[in-house]
Amino acid sequence: MTARGKFITFEGIDGAGKSTHIPFVAEWIRARGHAVLATREPGGTPVGEALRELLLHERMQADTEALLMFASRREQVLTTIEPALAAGTWVACDRFTDSTRAYQCGGRGVDPARIATLADWVHRGLVPDLTLLFDAPVAVAQRRVAQGADAPDKFEREQAAFFERVRGAYLDLAAAEPRRIKVIDSSAGIEAIRGVIRSHLEALVP
Prior knowledge:
Layout: E1 7-11, H1 22-31, E2 36-40, H2 46-57, H3 62-86, E3 90-94, H4 97-107, H5 112-123, E4 130-135, H6 138-148, H7 160-176, E5 181-185, H8 190-204
Parallel strand pairs: 1-3, 1-4, 2-3, 4-5
Helix pairs in contact: 2-3, 3-5, 4-7
């Protein structure tokens, strides 16, 4: 039987630098003989990408935003993530449900119980094997966004107070699940960050 693939997620506030390291992780996985699928949320499927455009650029009620996040997630879990894992492919996903807990609950104030109900419906039993949480002070992250984004999306345009709430929610999640969620100081140099990432990946491999 083919061994099930590992599911790795990348989290952090906008500007924390998580996306920069996904190609490095994908290459690390391939170098060890595993197929890897790199994907993102919201998105990852034609339906998800269409929803991504709405989510990143249209103002909407917080509950609507959360529901659309899970609609995109459900499509991707059923058509992409679960089939890949079952075939032995490792999946590296830029954001997953921890993002919804941080952004929609921590940032927008959506009731966490609603998110828990949706998560149980949308991906019951599917929990990342490893979550890399890239953490940086809000001021540092916002400076990076300002330097790099030609047309910031609606999340990137949020105020510092919003991102302080999101960051706090992320750190609370990490404190509650330290075995899964590994906090990485993303204000450090790139080589230092990759050394930490490598150590977490090596611990994941039997």
